[in-house]
Fold this sequence. Notes:
Blueprint: H1 10-28, H2 34-43, H3 45-50, H4 67-70, H5 73-76, E1 87-90, E2 100-103, H6 105-120, E3 134-140, E4 148-152, E5 158-164, H7 169-180, E6 186-189, H8 191-202, E7 213-216, H9 223-233, E8 237-243, E9 247-252, E10 259-261, E11 265-270, E12 276-277, E13 280-288, E14 296-311, E15 317-327, E16 332-334, E17 337-339, H10 345-348, E18 353-361, E19 364-371, H11 377-391, E20 396-401, E21 416-420
Parallel strand pairs: 3-5, 3-6, 6-7, 7-8, 18-21, 19-20
Antiparallel strand pairs: 1-2, 4-5, 8-9, 9-10, 10-15, 11-12, 11-13, 13-14, 14-15, 16-17, 18-19
Zinc ion is lined by residues 122, 253, 255, 257, 260, 312, 314, 316.
Amino acid sequence: MKGFANLEMLPSLIESYKQRGLFLERRNINLYNSVFFQHASMTVPFYKSFFNNTAQANPIDFPIVSRKDLRKTVEFTSNNFDKKDLLFKTTSGTSGVPLKIPRDPASLYSFLHEGFAEVVSRETVTSKLMPGKLGILFVDDLGSNSEISNLNPSLNYSIVRRVSIGKDYVRDVQLVKELRKLRIPILYGRPRALQALMKIDESTNGRHISPDLGLCSGDNLYSDVKNSLQNWLQCRVLNSYAMQECGFIASECSNDTGLHISQNIMLNVEAGAGERSSTGEGFAVITYFDNWAFPIINYLTDDIVSVRNTSCRCGYSGPTITEIKGRNSPYFFIDGSQFNPSHFNIIFENQMIDQFQMVQRGHVFSLKVIPGEVKDLDFLASYLKDELRKIAPLEQIEIEFCRSIATDSHQKVQRYVCLAFT
Ligand SMILES: [Zn+2]
């Protein structure tokens, strides 16, 4: 790694330069300008027929769309773009079926580069990012051997380096030893990837990895995980709410006021019966202004959020997510009534357990557990069953100890999942 001397980064830099020009042009049009909505209503087949070929400028007139709707890729792709200029990205699909999303070059720039810049823009670490030096170390736990480094023009041309862990323990230990010697301004990854890195770091003699800032996205960052990461890294770890379809939707600053909404996003909440409002509690409904090839307007997600207007010391004022209440399936159904499984959290928040997932299928509750500091797994299994039953009358509990919870490496790991309750 020799910074600018590394010519391998040049082609991607030239590519991102082209994308950046298009991106800045697009941002020059006021994001909330009606042009975006007019473009969608006049060039996207679904909206063209919905509005009978008349231009619309007001988001409130656009219908709510679901993931199932957006799966009809052709219907939602603007015919103003040449297919060869679009990049098709497939999203993970927490709910099973992946979503194939075309991106235009400007939105690709936003997704790969500008999004990070906005998320960390409120933090002092931003001023320390130097051209050709490491800026963001992105840790992923997909276990592939590929290492990728790119320059980020939106972060003062600092380097975003992606490393992968989880396939070969000896190699992981070597990597940790190398990372300890580096100045890492921002350490970024899914909570479970940073937890995995922490485990390797803790079990290897010597001083710890010490970044200036931690940043998480991908899965829910639960408060106990956040605390343990902060204790280990000795720095702030900020949460963000992101999805493949729209990039960073909201992100925390270090003032603990919540997750501020990104400027390329309009977020509403749906509290039931199609009622939308800008604050309050309900399912997040998202409009994403950056991808004109595939305009995402009033996209109903499975995530339940609480939103209020804040004026924060970091300089942000506007809608802020104060709580993300479980994603997808926040409830179990026990004895015919709704049960909030976060009551179980207390059982799992101890040294014996690193990660877990609990899935309801009818009257069967399956637990996957990555054990922590414990030798006797039979003891742990009976302890868990006893404690769970003290809180709720669970009939059948199955426990599996494992090394990885995700069956598909791109999957979001939910702590509690309800697949069927009858
Ligand atoms: Zn703030």
